[in-house]
Specification:
CATH class of one domain: Mainly Alpha
CATH architecture of one domain: Orthogonal Bundle
Helix content: over 70%
Strand content: under 5%
Radius of gyration: 31 Å
Structural class: mainly alpha
Number of helices: 6
Shape: elongated
């Protein structure tokens, strides 16, 4: 019977590996896909959504109507229209000019990349741990009773019937 189980297990794991590879490929494609040409106003809007208002609490530069946010949006607009700088370069310039508190999202490099990596590693470790635990529990549950187990259960049932009758007399 263990040969049949091994064959069944061997038929299942390639499907899971293929599924993981397809999902990883789609995530990689989706995260690097460029949306195409954008207008300067769309760039200003997107960049201002990635920066925090230095004065307001919990608002982005895009949402805030504070004078500091208005001046940051004007600087972003000037950078977008007058320079060939990319979005990340403009964000770095704004953070340098207005202070680190304006950086809403941590960078994906250096020490700050741990903010992105640690949750992913923890999720993978938890999934692997659960897989091993479920596998161990399943093998513990899949034991087939033998004649000695059946005799033990029959004796316990017989003793239980006798105890039930004694309990009825009192």
């Amino acid at each position: 019977m263990s040969g049949a189980r091994a064959l069944q297990h061997a038929k299942r794991w390639p499907g899971w590996v293929l599924l993981v590879l397809v999902v990883a490929g789609l995530l990689a494609y989706g995260s690097t896909k460029d949306v195409g040409a954008r207008t300067p106003e769309e760039r200003v809007e997107e960049i201002s959504k990635q920066l925090a208002c230095p004065i307001c609490d919990g608002e982005t530069v895009y949402e805030s109507r504070n004078t500091a946010s208005i001046s940051i949006r004007a600087e972003i607009r000037a950078q977008v229209t007058t320079t060939d700088a990319g979005d990340d370069e403009i964000i770095a310039y704004i953070v340098q000019q207005f202070g680190a508190q304006t950086q809403l999202l941590p960078r994906a490099s250096g020490f700050e990349s741990l903010v992105w990596v640690i949750p992913s590693v923890a999720l993978v470790c938890a999934a692997v741990g659960l897989w091993f635990a479920f596998r161990r529990w399943r093998t513990a549950v899949d034991t087939v009773p033998d004649e000695q187990d059946r005799a033990l259960v029959a004796a316990a049932l017989a003793a239980g019937d006798g105890a039930g009758e004694a309990g009825d007399d009192t």
